[in-house]
Design goal:
7 helices; globular; 2% strand; mainly alpha; single chain
């Protein structure tokens, strides 16, 4: 029997250490969001950029774990939620839309992750060739990176614009231009999140139907002739 001391310590895997750093940076960003946009902005952006690094580290060091995948998902959702709370405070007239965005982001990703776990998949990014075309396209590496990047650009841009116009080109705010460009991507990503929920509901209903059928068959087999 392998000695306990020789077992791998999943908590100290490099991708998970990166995940802890992301959480710390997000908390610092939350703390300074109202008072110091420079510290908050940099901490939030670095935390978001590290999201791309932990996956590479997991593959490079053969340290992909369920804990790391869950940590990654939770940090993404909580980071976005914290920023949306701040945006609701800074732009109270748009609070309803920020609330809707927050609910869509959390609820749709949660039910989809649950459905993949119930289906026995090792990753929520795995797809069969016959599954939804848009979802398969979305989870192509370059497409996913593009969508997530510009989604962060949109919300981060709104945050920064509350405090500063940032660098300007011909008198036009670069932050404002990037935010406007990123807006359609953020809307599309929200739509794809709703598609996540629809696909998840369909998959869970199939699991329910199959389980109920299996239960009926077992009960029928137990009945005396």
């Amino acid at each position: 029997m392998t000695d306990v001391a020789e077992k791998e310590n999943i908590f100290l895997f490099i991708p998970n250490l990166i995940g802890y750093a992301r959480i710390f940076l997000a908390i610092v960003a939350f703390y300074f969001m109202q008072t110091n946009y420079i510290i908050a902005g940099w901490c939030y952006i670095i935390s978001a950029l590290l999201d791309a690094i932990d996956g590479h580290a997991a593959r490079a060091f053969n340290q992909s774990t369920k804990l790391g995948a869950m940590l990654d998902q939770l940090t993404d959702r909580c980071g976005t939620a914290g920023l949306l709370v701040a945006l609701s405070y800074f732009y109270p007239g748009y609070m309803f839309w920020f609330q809707i965005s927050l609910v869509i982001d959390i609820a749709c990703h949660w039910i989809y992750l649950q459905s993949t776990t119930m289906a026995g998949k090792t990753s929520h990014k795995l797809f069969d060739p016959n599954e939804n075309f848009i979802m398969r396209l979305y989870y192509q590496k370059d497409v996913l990176t593009f969508m997530c990047f510009f989604n962060e650009v949109f919300y981060s841009g709104l945050y920064l614009l509350h405090f500063t116009t940032g660098p300007t080109i011909l008198g036009i705010s670069l932050f404002k231009v990037l935010t406007i460009i990123a807006f359609p991507v953020a809307i599309a990503k929200a739509g794809i999140s709703l598609l996540h929920a629809y696909v998840a509901a369909q998959n869970i209903s199939i699991i329910d139907v199959n389980e109920r059928e299996d239960t009926r068959k077992r009960n029928a087999a137990k009945k005396p002739e």
